[in-house]
Fold each of these.
Amino acid sequence: MESDELVVAVAQHAPVPGDVAENARRAAAAVADAAGADLLLFPLLSLTGYDLRRLAERASWATPDDPRLDVVREASRAHGVTTVVGAAWSAPDGRRLLASVALLPDGGVEVAGKQYLSRAERDLFEPGEPAPPLDVRGWRVALAVCFDAAAPEHALEMARRGADVYAVSALYTDGQERRLDVHPAARAMDHRMYALVANLAGAGPGWRSCGGSGVWHPDGRRLVEAGTGPRVVTARLARAELERLRAADAVAGYRG
């Protein structure tokens, strides 16, 4: 059943480097703290941190039946929250994905692998295929991983699949503040969907986060901003706003 509103939470999270179990515990605590949200989005590689050297360690990879994720599954079930974590994902078919992993309140798992990999990432991962949007209380939530949001064709495909929300797990670094604002604003405005960005907090090998996680309205306005440090921000999305803008575009001949 479609709901008129969707409450979303975006976690600007600084992972414990390489410690999947501890980062899962922290994610579960954030789920409890965000009780009342329907969707909680974490950044790129939120279970390990962004240090590709650590992925030489088998323990840095997560799997569908990974017991370290049970604490997040249970928190998602208990609080009715769809929780999206960032993982180095070892799929049952042997694929290795730089993934956003959605842990659903009913115990299901949905995975979206990053399509537009950097040169260094291609040595470890294979490109993901476009994943169908999630159903979160009747809202269609499309998952994007970092540079996917910089590729207009990715958001276009998600819009064609009926996305209402474009949820980006990312790493934007010092000097990329403008990119962080323009990418979600453009995707939201062009396709009349809300956009979320969860950016890593802190720093890693060769990078420091610029912060700035938040939520963007389908007219391109930023609604909330997380600042620079670890923080969870929330927003209430209104379906009426989507319908108003989409109807105006249709009258002008821009949609349908």
Amino acid sequence: MTQPVGRLHTAISRRIPHLPDAAGPLSGSTSEGAGLSLLFVGDSSVAGVGAAHHEEALAGQFSTALAGHTGAPVAWRVLARSGDTVRGITELVTTQAETLDADLVVLSAGTNDALRLRRPSAWRADVTVLVEALRERLGRPVPVLLVGLPPVHRFGSLPRLVRWSIGGYAMLLDRQLARLGAEHPGLRHLLPGPLPTNTAQFFAVDRFHPSPAGYRAWARLLAASAAPHVTDLAPAPA
């Protein structure tokens, strides 16, 4: 099965135009002052593919929206590698030379595992190992928000048959995230709700990653879903 899966992933990768990661600093803040610090970890969605700068990608947009909900500044940092599976991201975390610190981790990954048809039970174990690695690097059991997998079945860059089969597989993986969020303290599964993927503005030119407008819509929905879980972490507004 490995060879057919590898050929499928290669064929899909060749079909999708290559876009660079978002440029600019990998960290920032919504405003000055003490507040909540977020570490965004993941694959190309966290790397900001489809946006020019991280301020208009997931990290910047989510932080701005969350600051609006909490009334406190939000500092953010990105640790991501495009095209990586959860196992690859774990390697990135464990080999990171710089010190990691955060009040909250936002983890967005899994699409590349779905494209490779990673077994759901094995993928759940991979995510568990990644969460443990993050907490070990951070030195404490930091809360982790598990971002639900995107609606791959709506990605116009994929052939219809592949779109629905891989999209269904992504849903299977997302159910594992939901189980992890329900069963383990400090983990929360974030579902953004209905994304406006039927609008021309949502996707970047590769029709696979969000555009800045897409990131903004996605981030606002995620921040609204996350706000009830992070209110206790954020300092009271001055």
Amino acid sequence: MADRTRLTRERVVGAALRIVDGEGLDGLSMRRVAEELGVETMALYRYTPSKDDLLDGLVERIFIELEEKLNGTPFGPAVLAGGDDEAAPPWREALVAVARAMYRVALAHPNVAPLLVIRPFTVPLTRRPPAVLRAHERLLTRLERAGLDERATLELYRAVISWVLGYIVFELREVVDNPDEPEPAFRMGLHRLPVKEFPRLRALGPGLAVRGGEEQLAAGVTALIDRFAPPT
């Protein structure tokens, strides 16, 4: 059995992430995490008092990975603060780059990604993990320093957050009925749909199994920027 004194919250959340990545959210429990770490279940409660807290830790891990992915790039968190820093990239370009990075991190952890949408329903804004709050603070700061007024800042903030999270969830949805079936229509199970009742789904269904990718995500962010903060 592992030495309890070597436990940290980071290790506990890391174990939970490995479990969810490999087994899905249904496989996550305090007992399963304890097994992964080789400790008694009660040893975990010093670092995470509940499964809900553990889920929030997984969300925070996603945002920490986002920070790490951006660090050392022209779009790193320090540079994104913007202002008059000559190293700061144009804010429109920065928003698109952050959206792309978020997409990559979410696709690396597809079983965790739904929590990005689910947890805000149960966790008030000010009680969310620090890494999550930092991401939102930087976005609002960057929009304000770009010269947007309060109304435009809030409108674009809501629009970009909604688009990016919605797009990610749509990309990761389960659409394949039989992964081993080589023929696209049968792979998706479209033969189960009455053709007279669902003609468009039958015709366009195979395309739904193909991810839109980063380019469609970026195009959406750019369109929102042009809508709520058109170039002057």
